[in-house]
Amino acid sequence: MKVRNTNLSSGLVRSEGAQEKKREPLPPDPGLSSREQKRLRGEKDVEFEPLLDASEAASLLRIHPKTIQRLARLGYVPAFRVGKFRRYRASDLEKWLRSVSHSNGQLADRVDFTKEKSS
Question: How many beta carbons lie within 10 A of that of residue 13, not counting itself?
Answer without folding.
Answer: 15
